[in-house]
Amino acid sequence: MKMKDNAIWLGECEVGDSYVSDTYEVTEEEIIAFAKQYDPQYFHTDPEKAKDSFFKGLASSGWLTAAIMMKLQVASNPFGFDLVGVEVKLEWPSPTRAGDILHIRTEIKDIKMSRSKPNQGILTVETITKNQKDEVRMVMQNKILGFTRPK
Amino acid sequence: MKMKDNAIWLGECEVGDSYVSDTYEVTEEEIIAFAKQYDPQYFHTDPEKAKDSFFKGLASSGWLTAAIMMKLQVASNPFGFDLVGVEVKLEWPSPTRAGDILHIRTEIKDIKMSRSKPNQGILTVETITKNQKDEVRMVMQNKILGFTRPK
Predict the structure, then answer these.
(1) What would the pLDDT profile of B78-124 be if each residue is shown by its tens digit?
(2) Which of A63, B79, B101, B115 is paired with A78 by a 20 to 30 Å CA distance?
(3) Taking a contact as any Cβ pair under 8 Å apart, which residues of chain B between 31 and 60 contact chain A?
(4) What chain B residue is nearest to A1 in terms of C-alpha separation?
């Protein structure tokens, strides 16, 4: 369904290949709006009270960091197939902050072709989300479905 | 910072303890709005085109399922300490659909007290997100920071 020029399919990429996204600026407004809807803990919604928290200041919900990573992922991935995640592992070494200008870098770590379906496989990719100071905000290991180029 | 009656702290819960949330109804509007902002793939944003996709119909972004799980988690958890995730593993056995009425059940799978900080530890919890038909939409393994009751 995706109509990209130069799209890459399974069989046309290898372990070690990588791509980098554009950037996305995270605002205090977005951190608070997302948290009020989905993760209403005071250190995500109240800049004043957050100063006394574990995070010592307003911190983004890790799930907003994940959502922004996905936005950048959809925009930056070179694949011809859709992005359907099977299994994900996430770590947040530090919280995303207001003013962070995030980008992601994704690298293919493993490719396993399906034995029963020769046009299909599982790619393991690692996506690192960093801000403009190179601080790591999220590390994701993700298994996604891949397909060979349609004939 | 949380002021709950009957809050539970580290040392007052054990492996096997569990809790269940209230329910949350997922609408087509929310699926599309979230996806347009964070996961703009056609099977998350366009009910018609989605019929021809891997999901055979409009499917929620897995990241919206995660965000709703977190909303239910914040509302249902019995802990006196804040919820700070360290490491998460997610699987989506089936996609969340419009009309799903979701709830979560969380069970403590492991408790490891810190050696250096006696008031601190890591809880491993498993949270299963299901709809009203008992279909599993997400399985999460999560390591969270836990604290003993303040003296």
Answers:
(1) 999 999 888 999 999 999 999 999 999 999 999 999 999 999 999 99
(2) A63
(3) 34, 37-43, 49, 52-54
(4) B53
CA–CA separation, A6 vs B68, rounded Å?
A: 36
Is there a contact between B72 and B25 (Cβ–Cβ < 8 Å)? no
Tell me the domains of chain B and their CATH numbers. Answer: 18-147 (3.10.129.10)
A83 contacts in B (CB within 8 Å)? 41
DSSP state letters, A15-41? TT-EEE---EE--HHHHHHHHHHH---
Q: Do residues B74 and A39 touch, judged by C-beta distance below 8 A?
A: yes
Looking at residue B79, its amino acid is F
pLDDT digits (tens, 9 = 90+) for B21-78: 999 999 999 999 999 999 999 999 999 999 999 999 999 999 999 999 999 999 999 9
Task: Kindly list the residues from chain B whose CB atom is less than 8 angstroms away from the CB atom of residue A96.
Answer: none
Q: Is the pTM of this model over 0.80?
A: yes
Residue A144 has what DSSP assignment? E
Q: Which of B39, B71, B88 to mutate to test the interface with A (most CBs of A within 10 A)?
A: B88
Nearest chain B Cα distance for residue A116, angstroms: 18
Nearest CA in chain B to A66: B63
Q: What is the residue type of B129? A: T
Q: Do B70 and A43 touch (CB under 8 A)?
A: no
SS3 content of chain A, % helix, strand, coil (to 5): 25, 35, 45
Return averaged pLDDT per consecutive 10 residues of chain A, 151 residues in all. 76 96 98 98 97 96 98 96 92 97 98 95 97 98 95 84
